[in-house]
């Protein structure tokens, strides 16, 4: 869909070697700056000449943004840690396998070798009208080309649409929400930490962004607390091409079962709205119940309440219902 | 400096998409400057107002102590319109200056309230109130000329006292009609671009150029309303205007203020016998 027009537009390239320097550069250039992580999303924008930043701040030389480290209560993953490193990290595989499963289903091995966890959660929407440079709401205009009777909206939102119907395409985001991760953000006013689910925003709050980062802000790390280490995890991603593709929908859940009933659970889906959705109502409804087909059925129905399909994406409603059902009951039990 | 934001539509045409958002600050600063300049002028430079003496002296005893000015219905309309207008301005412009919240639903709901209340007002004012009392008449224009000439030191007779509404009120009302109807008419069409309970969505109702012009008009009228409402609130709280503001709350103004500012021949108080009270009269419109 995207039209490769020419070489990338000219910009000043900055390659800081510390977070402090990167943050200073971002603050200095404000809205004119572009944060370059793995480049998997950025180079599409730049080579299509849709986004024309004056300054690109390349984070690849900042060692402190890379790697997985143990912290007091869990682990901290640098925002520039590649998805392959996340997939192969023994601690993540052992204790937080949900994230490893999700990261392993991102795109292709080559892309996972280059793409980063910070980039995966901060990537932009894939709506082709938006990516083609049309003046839609998300691009600052006054129309959504996808939300029309003729619009191609098979991949778009069924929940929480507000003028724009694009969805968040991240696979790791719902896993991080299910693991109750915290995102560490360096801002001009200092460092702050937000819950994973609060990192993402919908068009009702800001139609031009998928996350809360403002010009000058930098996502530096993601912390996963030990509260959900070793829980029963479930991740499933539905896509058109199983070799590599963005999700039509995905679901991630972390569950602690005690005495045959669900003691604690966190569940999130992505691809249904402009932000990954934590299904709080489902969590409340299934707590204390047995993780069986009946509970999964009830959870699935509850999850899709309020869904409004577009012309070509009604299939997402039963799909989401079944994914949530499977996440609660497990594949065998649900079927 | 570009007053509008432009984009290239899918057919390659350059179309406007909305106003440049810095105009919000231009309107706010313009409103603030007007307030400051007017306050300084009134405090330090303005001469006491003079009106032409009445050819036939008015007997104050014939005027009720509480002169009815706005009926309950008219007051209710004013405050409903004010509430919806403030909601519209805050929900429209706070997100543009960095305060992010879920504004769209509140915005179109307030717009619907404003639309209904203005349609009601047009009907009510046309058939149940003195429709022409808010429109400038020949005496207003003549007196405006006299006031300007007197301000410039020319020897002309003083103006007459006002009818029900001073010329400034009438001009302000005119400006609000233009800006208000612009945002309402464009806003009603724009509702077809968002999900509301009123219309099925149809973003292709007009061409991109027509939509763009509509967004521009909506935006220009909207920022115009920022300045207009700042000025309105300022006059509402000025000491010499408080009796008028009070009348918009309680429905009446005092006999003294009425005789001081208004010409009983130009604004005749109609008091139905059945409406007489011990304090004077009920509100009329």
Summarize the structure in words:
The complex is a heterodimer of chains A (335) and B (285). Chain A is an alpha+beta fold and 335 residues long. Chain A is built from 14 helices and 12 strands. Chain A folds into 2 domains: 1-59, Uridine Diphospho-n-acetylenolpyruvylglucosamine Reductase, domain 2, CATH 3.30.43; 69-122 and 167-334, Uridine Diphospho-n-acetylenolpyruvylglucosamine Reductase, domain 3 (2-Layer Sandwich), CATH 3.30.465.10. In chain A, 30% of the residues lie in helices and 21% in strands. In chain A, α5 runs antiparallel to α9, α11 (280-286) packs antiparallel against α12 (293-303) and α12 (293-303) packs antiparallel against α13 (316-329). Chain B is mainly alpha-helical and 285 residues long. Chain B has one domain (4-275): Transmembrane di-heme cytochromes, Chain C (Fumarate Reductase Cytochrome B subunit, Up-down Bundle), CATH 1.20.950.20. Helix content of chain B is 54%, strand content 6%. Chain B has 8 helices and 4 strands. In chain B, the strands form 2 sheets. A two-stranded antiparallel ribbon of chain B has the order 1-2. Residues 275-284 of chain B have low confidence and may be disordered. Classes of the chains: A alpha+beta (335), B mainly alpha (285). At the A-B interface, loops of A face β1, β2 and α6 of B.
Through-space gap between termini of chain A: 37 Å
CATH topology name of chain B: Fumarate Reductase Cytochrome B subunit
Oligomer: heterodimer
Strand order, largest beta sheet of chain B: 1-2
The biggest chain-chain interface is:
A-B, 20 and 25 residues
| Tally of structural domains of chain A | 2
Average residue pLDDT of chain A: 95
- CATH domain class of chain B: Mainly Alpha
Q: How large is the radius of gyration of chain B?
A: 22 Å
Shape of chain A: globular
